[in-house]
Write a structure and sequence with these properties.
The protein is of the alpha+beta class and 412 residues long. The chain is built from 18 helices and 7 strands.
Length: 412
């Protein structure tokens, strides 16, 4: 019995209103939806499993065009090719062809736009923009992102790897992130040439082999009590903010940005939310009596426009970093505010018997050893309170090496 082919005509199609599938022959069908819409599809089998390959809607796809498309599908099937998979491959090829016109700079700008809302501050955004503008755009900015290879990445990194190692490392990481983004968006294929392990580590020396870590200039802890006492004699927002920073051994930005809502008076603690912490996790700081005293001293400076304990000159902004640094530079031109954290750490090691992990927790340092971190789940808050009270006492009065706290009392 001969196969029924070309069963449909334009007139028949126009008169079809009942939902269902209507064969034209040789695998071509017209699907009439309940809404009245009409779509073409080609029906076939692969390994005994029925499949339907959509060919488009009628009348955009005419009867003649649908029959020609169905013929192409039958030819593919005779050659052992799945029409659906073939279509996917064709679309991917088309996307890659279009992607050839997408430059690295275009992808970089799109990446920044997609991620900048998740970055903590404007400084982070400006660092991204500045490093890309200075080091990457002149080399690969106008090049198709698909064509960025390891030779081009090396052309960017080699000139600065030995002289500006820290910057070069950050540039590499940013290129890697952008290329990963471009790959997920199907603007490029293949391995990421900016990966360190297994690629660039074969061509460039380790960062720590090239550049020794730079430490923040810190005050000798033995000089600190005299400096702190002179600081407390000053009655300015900057002096109080700096004193609070020293007592809490927090980072500059964390201390300057403290708000009244972060202070838990009942628990005598300062709760820094995760979005303000470098490690992006909440940090509880036990507050000594002197730290609370500073907060009370700031009440007359309270403004209705914001909740910052140490308000700055600008509207709804905390005191500036420069204001604190200026106080330090007046008597110690080479030192930094961040260096007081190092002073505290040295004092802990040399003048107390508190365990290392307690001091590190006070500084909100992340435990790098994964095994140790798995067991160390608490924040040792009460032990840290004893340490911070002792630190405050040292800042106010000073201690000698003979005043080392017995270990059984220090950690009890």
């Amino acid at each position: 019995m001969a196969k029924l082919i070309k069963q449909l005509t334009d007139l028949k199609i126009k008169r079809l209103f009942k939902s269902g599938s209507y064969p034209d022959g040789e695998g071509l069908y017209l699907q009439v939806r309940e809404s009245g819409g009409k779509d073409w599809f080609y029906r076939y089998q692969v390994a005994g499993k029925g499949k339907k390959h959509g060919l488009g809607s009628y009348p955009t796809i005419t009867l003649v065009k649908a029959r020609n498309d169905a013929l192409e599908c039958r030819i593919l099937r005779k050659n052992g090719i799945d029409p659906i998979e073939h279509k996917k491959a064709q679309n991917q090829k088309k996307e890659l062809e279009q992607a050839k016109n997408i430059t690295f700079k275009t992808c970089a700008l799109a990446y920044i736009e997609a991620h900048k809302r998740g970055w903590k501050n404007k400084k982070h955004l400006s660092q991204w923009e500045n490093t890309l503008t200075t080091y990457t755009y002149p080399v690969i900015g106008k090049i198709a992102v698909q064509d960025v290879d390891i030779d081009l990445v090396m052309k960017i990194l080699e000139p600065i790897w030995f002289e500006k190692t820290e910057t070069a490392s950050r540039v590499r990481q940013r290129i890697e992130n952008i290329l990963d983004w471009a790959t997920v968006r199907k603007y490029r294929q293949g391995d990421n040439p900016a990966l360190w392990r297994g690629r660039l580590d074969k061509l460039l020396p380790q960062r720590n082999k090239v550049q020794k870590p730079k430490h923040f200039a810190a005050m000798d802890y033995r000089e600190l009590p005299e400096f702190f006492r002179s600081l407390r004699k000053k009655d300015t927002i900057a002096s109080k903010a700096l004193a609070y920073t020293i007592l809490t051994v927090t980072r500059n930005g964390e201390a300057r940005g403290v708000t009244r809502t972060e202070i838990d008076n009942k628990a005598q603690a300062w709760i820094i939310p995760e979005n303000r912490m470098k490690a992006e996790r909440e940090h509880r700081v036990p507050l000594s009596g002197e730290a609370f005293k500073i907060i009370k001293e700031m009440e007359p400076f309270k403004r209705h426009t914001d909740d910052f304990i140490f308000p700055g000159l600008a509207h709804a902004k905390p005191i500036s970093e420069a204001s604190l640094l200026k106080l330090v530079k007046l008597s110690h031109p080479t030192l930094t505010v961040h260096g007081f954290r190092s002073s505290f750490r040295d004092w802990c090691a040399e003048q107390t018997n508190f365990p290392r992990e307690v001091a590190e927790a006070a500084l909100a340092h992340i435990i790098k050893d994964k095994t140790e971190a798995a067991y160390q789940r608490g924040d040792m808050f009460e032990k840290r309170r004893k340490l911070m009270d002792l630190w405050t006492d040292y800042c106010l009065k000073g201690k000698t090496e003979a005043d080392v706290i017995p270990i059984n009392k220090a950690v009890s």
